[in-house]
Amino acid sequence: MGLTGQKLGDGIYYTPSTRGNYSVTTNFYVTGAIYSGSSLAVIVKVTDTTTGQTVTRTIFSPTSGYFDDQYVNATERFYLYAGHKYAFTFETELTQVLSSLL
Fold first, then answer.
1. Taken in order 78, 82, 84, 88, is the CA torsion positive or negative?
2. Rounded Cα distance, 6 and 100, in Å
3. Could you tell me which of 102, 54, 57, 97 has the C-alpha nearest to residue 77?
4. In angstroms, how far is CA 18 from the centroid of its own chain?
5. CA–CA dist 27, 42 (Å, integer)
6. Helix or strand or coil: residue 98?
7. What is the number of other CB atoms lying within 10 angstroms of the CB of residue 101?
8. Whole-model pTM?
């Protein structure tokens, strides 16, 4: 099952009418360099606003290298309960290796 939600503020909200597995698909482009020892992760968080429970999944975590407008299409499945309101948020996590010029 796919889903279409309502965009409010920084998140997307959805209330399913039936319980079951739902697919969340996202598309984006990546441009830039990730240096050896650094990392990038794009994550999706699904929060059940009824219970407060959050499930977090990494949808993109590339290795080091240069990315020139690389297209990413990622799908994750989540089990949702009927009548619960869910918030979907996408975040990035970045760790960097800093070097100094001598």
1. positive
2. 46
3. 57
4. 23
5. 11
6. coil
7. 3
8. 0.75
Residue with tokens 């100094």: 100
- The pair of structure tokens assigned to 49 is 């606003």
Token code pair at residue 76 = 């994750």
Task: Report the greatest alpha carbon distance in the chain.
Answer: 61
For residue 88, give the nearest of 17, 20, 10 by alpha carbon.
Answer: 10
Q: Which two tokens stand for residue 68?
A: 């020139």
| Dihedral over Cα of 20, 78, 1, 48: its sign | positive
CA distance 61 to 43: 9
pLDDT of residue 98: 56
Tens-digit pLDDT string for the chain (102 aa)? 344 444 444 568 899 999 999 998 888 898 888 888 888 899 999 999 999 999 999 999 988 889 999 999 999 999 999 999 999 988 888 887 655 444
Distance CA 46, CA 52 (A): 10
Element holding 92 (H helix, E strand) = strand 86-95
